């Protein structure tokens, strides 16, 4: 039920146009008597909406930081929180961080080694991101294309209520 509570909490934030931007296990408070989970530390949270705002890339603890932020994007939205939730869930299942990088480039390469180095076919627009380098090592994906699309493009609402997106299977 912890994952469900995290998803419900972040869906609430997003429905009120708030990006948390620093989701990590240390920012989840759990009442041991009731197992109620609360999101905490909104110090990096920001409102989002129209017009698209430009944000800093210095957000989210490294291990939970979305690849678009690591690649220098300053225009991002709810998927950055969804990425963090996915990393937290993987850590809950495996009892260890999914991508424990010790620098931004190490973090990116840990992600690429699992999901594959992105290109314009798998992630349209990736080569235009400020910190994308065509010289990045080309790792093949170790997961099905469906999982890549789920991690990158899934919205909180689809994760909570069931996907209405195209099946990539």
From TrEMBL:
Catalytic class of the enzyme: transferase
Keyword Cell cycle: yes
Segments forming domain Protein kinase: 1-169
Pfam families: Pkinase
SUPFAM superfamilies according to UniProt: Protein kinase-like (PK-like)
Single GO cellular component term: nucleus
Record's keyword annotation contains Phosphoprotein: yes
Entry's EC annotation: 2.7.11.22
One Gene Ontology biological process: regulation of meiotic cell cycle
Taxonomic superkingdom: Eukaryota
Catalytic activity reported: L-threonyl-[protein] + ATP = O-phospho-L-threonyl-[protein] + ADP + H(+); L-seryl-[protein] + ATP = O-phospho-L-seryl-[protein] + ADP + H(+)
Transmembrane regions: none
Gene Ontology terms for molecular function: ATP binding; cyclin binding; cyclin-dependent protein serine/threonine kinase activity
Alphabetized UniProt keyword annotations: ATP-binding, Cell cycle, Cell division, Kinase, Mitosis, Nucleotide-binding, Phosphoprotein, Serine/threonine-protein kinase, Transferase
Xref: Gene3D superfamilies: Transferase(Phosphotransferase) domain 1
Similarity section: Belongs to the protein kinase superfamily. CMGC Ser/Thr protein kinase family. CDC2/CDKX subfamily.
Name of this protein: cyclin-dependent kinase
Organism of provenance: Gossypium laxum
Lineage of origin: Eukaryota, Viridiplantae, Streptophyta, Embryophyta, Tracheophyta
């Amino acid at each position: 039920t912890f994952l469900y509570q995290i998803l419900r909490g972040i869906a609430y934030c997003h429905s009120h146009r708030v990006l948390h931007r620093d989701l990590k296990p240390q920012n989840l408070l759990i009442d041991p008597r009731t197992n109620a989970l609360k999101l905490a530390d909104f110090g990096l949270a920001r409102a989002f909406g129209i017009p698209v705002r430009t944000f800093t890339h210095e957000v989210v603890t490294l291990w939970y930081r979305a690849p678009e932020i690591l690649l220098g994007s300053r225009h991002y939205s709810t998927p950055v929180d969804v990425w963090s939730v996915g990393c937290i869930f993987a850590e809950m299942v495996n009892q260890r961080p999914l991508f424990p990088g010790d620098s931004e480039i190490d973090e990116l390469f840990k992600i690429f080694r699992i999901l594959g180095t992105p290109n314009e076919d798998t992630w349209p627009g990736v080569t235009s991101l400020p910190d994308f380098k065509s010289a990045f090592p080309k790792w093949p994906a170790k997961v099905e294309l469906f999982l890549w699309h789920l991690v990158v493009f899934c919205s909180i609402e689809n994760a909570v209520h069931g996907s209405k997106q195209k099946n990539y299977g």
